Amino acid sequence: MFGARSGPSCRRSVARSTAFGVATCLLVAACTSSSGVTQESSNSTPSIDEPKTTEPPDSTTTPGGTPTVNDGSSTPIVAPDPDGLPALADIDPAITLGTLDNGLRYLIRRNDNPGARVEMRLSIDAGSALQESDQGGGAHFLEHMLFNGTEQFPENELIAVLRSFGASFGADINAYTSYDETVYQLTMPTADPSTVSTGLDVLQQWLSAATIDPDQVLAERGVVLDEWRGSAQSVNGRVFDEIQRFFLDGSPYEDRKPIGTDDEISSTTDGPLRAFYDDWYRPDNAAVVVVGDIDVADIERQIVERFQPADARGDSPERVDLVVEPATDARAVVFDDPDVSEGFAFVTLPLARDLSGSREAVVQRDIYQELAFEIIGTRLANDALRGEVPFDDAAVDGSGFVRLLDAPEIFVSADGADLEASTQAVLDEYERVLRYGFTQDEVDRSVAARRSAAQVDFDGRDSRQDASYADEYVRHVLEGESLPTAQRWFDYVTAVLDRATPETLAYMFVTRYEAAGPHIFVTAPADEIGDVPAADVFVTQAENASSRQVEPRPDAAAIGDSLLTPPAPVDEIGVTQLADGTVISFFEPALLTFPNGVSVAFNNTPITDGVVMFEGRSPGGSTVLDDTDVAAAAVAENVVENSGVGSFDPVAIDAFLADKEVVLDATIDVFTEGLNGSAATTDMETLFQLIHLVMTEPRVDPVALEQYIDNELPLAEDPSINPNYARFKLLTETRYTDPRYQLLSVDDLESVEPAQVEAVFRDRFGDASDWAFSFNGDFDISEAAELARVYLGTLPATGRVESVDFAEPLPPAGAIVDTTQAGEGDQASVTFFFTGDGTIERRDDVIARLLQQVITARLTDVIREELGESYSPFAAIELTGGATPLAETFLSVSTGPDRVQDVSIAVLEQVVDLRANGVTDVEYAAAISTVGNELELFSNEQLNDEILNVLTDPAGNPSLADFENQAELINSISQGDLDDSIDRWLPVADYIEIWVLPR
Fold it and tell me: CB-hemisphere CA count at 13 Å for 247?
C-alpha cells in the first residue's frame, strides 16, 4: 500500500487470513486462556495500591518554562502548556442529553447520514473485571442470555423481532463485552415509527427484564464454548492471552478474561448470572444513546416513558475505577506456541493512565505522546525499508486494552535468530530520544500528517455517519471523552499542533521512559524459538540500555513538493453520460475517453465530504500470463507497493505522503489487474500523480521481495500452523487444478526473482490501452477532468486490448469430502462449497443476497440455537463474472472436534430441507426486510465497482440501469424464485466439504 502506513501493527492477528472468493476467513483474538510454554523474567511484581495517576519526575520544567535537562545525558524537555487552549467542556448543542431521576443517562442526536436509519446503544458500565469469584465469564455469558429471552420477548422471539425489521443479528454484531463494559447496539430503519419504538423496547428489556431461564443457560453453554474455542484455542487467542497475563496479572483484572475459561463456561448456571445482572444492570450504571433520522423530542419522550420506572434490583455496588500499576523495572516474556508463523517482539512502556489536570491538558498530552511514538515508529520502519536492521518491519502499537492502562509500544517482526538484536534496536532508539530528542524536521512532518488528518475529519463533518456519533457518545459516558462541536474540536487540535515542539514531544517520551519499566514480549515459530534467548537476556538488555553507545541520527533528506513534473495534457476524444441521476439522484457519472484508450468516469456524491474514492481496472490478470509467471504476479502487488516509485525509494515515498491523505493499492487477480484507493479532495493531484508513476515507473526493491518471501514461507512450508490457511489451501486444491487459483508453494516463493516481478508488473500495468478508471466522491468534476488529461490521458499505450471471458473452470463432479489437520487446541470447522449455474440477470444478484440471509439465519437457528454448537455459522453467496457466471455458495460452521460429523449432517439436512420444502414465510419476510434495507444504502466504493463492471465486463454486466433499479427488483422476487435458485445453486450430489481438525 502506498500511503497510510501508520496505525496498529499486525500483532493482533498473528495468523494471517486469506480470502477465497466469498470465503472470508475471520480471525478472533480476545478473551482467551493461556497455553504454550512461557519464559518470564522480571525483578518486581505489579503492585495493587490505591488508584492513582502517574506523575512526571520532579526534575523537569514547569509548564511553559525554560527547557531544562534532567541530567547530563538527556535532551532538553518542556512540559506541554494547556493554558489558553480552546475549551473542550462545552457539549455540542446538537446533542440532547439528560439524566432521569433513577440515574439513567441518555444522549440523542438527529442525523441524516446515511438517512432513514437509526443507531441505538445501551451501555453498561460493567464488564468481566467486576465479576465475583463464582461468576467467571459471566458478564459475557449474560450478554448472550439477553438475546435468549426477556419478559416482553420470550426465548428466541427477540431474534425474530430483530430480523423482522431488517436489523442485523449475528456474532459480534449486536453486543460486545470487555473487561470494563458491556455495550448493546441496534441498527434499524426509521420509515415505520413503530420499528423505532420496538428498538427502544428492546433496550429497556435488556436493562430491566431479562429472564435468564435456567434451561436456556444450559443450552447456551455450547454456543459460548464454541466462541471460546474460536478465540482461546486459536494461535491469536493464545498469544493475546499471554500478553494480557503479562500486563494484567497482579491487578484487579487478573483471571477475569471476558470470555472466561472452558470450565467456567461449562459450569455456568443462572444464579451467578442473575446476581451480576441485578448488581450492574441498573439505571444509574447505564446509558441510552440514539442517533439517526428521528424526531428528537419524540425519542426523548419515549425514553423517559420506558426507562423512568426502572429501579435497581441488586445491592448496587459502587462502580470504582480499576487501576493497573505496571512494574517500574524491566520485565520480559518469551512465549512459545507451535502455531506462530512469524517471529515478533514489542517493547512497551506501560503506566497507569494519567488523568490529572484539565480535560484539555489530558488530550494535549495524549496527542503529543502519539506524535512522539509515531516519530520513533517512522524512524525504525524506515530502517527496515532500507534493509539496514535485523527486523522486517516496525510499527507503533499499544497494549492498553483496559480502561486505565496506558501502554504504547514499538512492534517489530523478525526471524527468531534476529529478535534479540531487534529489541536491542528498539531500546537503542528509546535511548537515542532520551539523549538527543527529536529534530524540528521530524516534528514538522509528524504535525503536518496529523494536521492533514484533522482537516479531512473536519471537512467530512456534515457527512458523519450515525454509528460514528453513537460510538463516540458511548465513549463519553464510559470514559469521559469530550463532545465538542466539530469546529471546536478542529480548533483545539489545530492549537495543540501549533504548540508542538521537539522539546514538548520529548517531554512526553522522556518522562514516560524514565518512569516506566520496559515490558518486552517475544515469540517466534516453533522451528525458530530455539534461537531466541531466555527472558532474562531481554531484561538485561533493558537494564543496560543507558550504557549503550548511541549516536544521533543524521538529518533526513529534503522532500520535494511534487512527485513528478506534470506531462502536457491530452484532451479527451469523447464524453458519454453513463447515467442521468433520475433513478439515484447522486448517480450521473460522465465518462471521458482518451486517445490512448483510457476511459475515466467521474461522479460527484454527497456520501462522504472531503474524500474521493477511486478504482482502476483492466481485463487480463494472470489468466493471460504463462504459468511460469503466475507466482511473480501473485508476489508483485505486495512487493511493488513496498518498493517506492519513480525516483522515490520506499522511505522517500513514505515521507512525501506522510502529510497527505492518499492511499493506493495494486492488485493482480485471475482476470483483471487493478488499482484502488482514496484521497482527501485537497490531495487529488497527488493521487493522480501516484497512479501515473505506479503505471509508468514501478520499482521492485530486493529488500521488499526478500521480506515478503520471508513472511510467506512459514505458511507455505507448514500450512498446519494456521487452520484458516490450511482450509483455504485444501479447498482451492480440491476445486481447481489451475495454479492461478491456488496458494504459492515453497518452490514458487523461492524461485521468484526481482527482475521477473518487475517485468510482470510492467506488462500488466505498463500498457493503458484498455484501462478504465472511476472516481466517486466529493470533488469538482472539471478539476478532476483536467487532472485526468494530464496524468491518465498521457499514460503509455500500444493499442493492446485483451479479451477475457471471466469464466471460472467447472467444479469437479460428485460430493468430495476431505479432511486437513491444523492448529493446536480444541477447535474444528466444517466448510461446504457448492457451485451452480447463474445468469447475468440482476435478479440473481439480489436473490443471492436474499438466500445468503436465509441460509445464515437457518444455520444460526438450527446449529447455534437448537444444537447449541456453533457461535458463528454463516453463508456467503457470490456470482462470478462473464456471460456464463457461476453461483458459488460457501457455508462455514465452527465446532468442536468431537461434533464435526454431527454438524456436517445437520448442515446437509438443512440444505436438503430447503431444496424439498423451500424457504419459510418467516425466513422470506426477514430476508426481504434486511436486504431491502441494504439496497437503500450506497458507498463510493460500490459505485466505482458497478461502473467498472460495466466498462470491463460488459458481457456479464451489460447496463448500469440494472444496478440503478435493483432496489425495485426485490419487490418482484417471490419465495418460489428463492426456491428455484436453491435447486440450481445447491446441488446435493455435487459439492466440496472440508473438515479442519486439530493436529
Answer: 32
Whether residue 412 contacts residue 426, with contact meaning beta carbons closer than 8 Å, is answered with yes
- How buried is 184 (Cβ within 10 angstroms: 0-12 exposed, 13-18 middle, 19+ buried)? buried
Instruction: Return the ∠ at Cα 861 (arms to 859 and 862), rounded to 5°.
Output: 65
C-alpha angle with apex 819: 813 to 823, nearest 5 degrees?
A: 145
Strands 519-524 and 331-336: parallel
Number of C-beta neighbours around residue 221 at 10 A: 18
Kindly write down the DSSP assignment for every residue of 295-340, as one continuous string.
-HHHHHHHHHHHHTT----S----------B--SS-EEEEEE-TT-
Q: Are 332 and 308 in contact (CB under 8 A)?
A: no
- Residue 144's identity, in one-letter code, is H
CB atoms within 10 A of CB 852: 21
* Residue 459 grid cell: 471537512
Query: Is the Cβ–Cβ distance between 498 and 444 less than 8 Å?
Result: no
3-class DSSP state for residue 221? helix
Answer whether 665's CB lies under 8 Å from 675's CB: yes
pLDDT digits (tens, 9 = 90+) for 257-316: 999 999 999 999 999 999 999 999 999 999 999 999 999 999 999 999 999 999 998 888
Return d(Cα 752, Cα 709) in angstroms, integer.
9
Look at residues 126, 478, 558 and name the one whose alpha carbon lies nearest to residue 289.
478
The label of the residue with cell 488530550 reads 363
d(CA 325, CA 350): 9
**Under 8 Å between Cβ of 865 and 873:** no
d(CA 60, CA 73): 14
636-674 pLDDT, tens per residue? 999 999 999 999 999 999 999 999 999 999 999 999 999
Determine the distance from the C-alpha atom of residue 163 to the mean position of all C-alpha atoms in its chain, rounded to a whole number: 25
CB-based contact 694:675 (threshold 8 Å): yes
The CA distances from residue 308 to 37, 102, 305, 643, in Å, are 53, 7, 6, 61
Beta strands, E only, 838-989: 874-879, 886-895
In 859-913 the beta strands, taken as DSSP E runs, fall at: 874-879, 886-895
> What is the CA 948 to chain-centroid distance, rounded?
26
* DSSP class per residue in 519-533: EEEEEE-TTTGGGSP
408-438 per-position pLDDT tens digit: 999 999 999 999 999 999 999 999 999 999 9
Task: Give the E-state strand segments of 296-447 in sequence order.
Answer: 331-336, 344-348, 351-352, 393-398, 405-406, 408-413
Res 555: pLDDT: 84
Q: Quote the radius of gyration of the chain (alpha carbons, Å).
A: 28
On whether the CB atoms of residues 36 and 238 are closer than 8 A, the answer is yes
Residues 644/705, Cβ–Cβ less than 8 Å: no
pTM higher than the cut 0.85:
yes
Alpha helices in 736-807 (DSSP H): 746-751, 754-765, 781-791
Q: Which pairs from 751-754 meet CB under 8 Å and 24+ separation? A: 751/631, 752/631, 752/632, 752/635, 752/705, 752/709, 753/632, 754/700, 754/701, 754/702, 754/705
Write the pLDDT tens digit of every residue in 153-210: 998 888 888 888 877 666 556 999 999 999 999 999 999 999 999 999 999 999 999 9
- 133, burial (CB in 10 Å: exposed 0-12, middle 13-18, buried 19+): exposed
- pLDDT given at position 169: 64
Nearest to 927 by CA among 975, 962, 963: 975
* Residues 599/593, Cβ–Cβ less than 8 Å: yes
Q: What's the start-to-end Cα distance of the chain, in Å?
A: 35
Cα–Cα distance for residue pair 51/196, rounded to 1 Å: 42
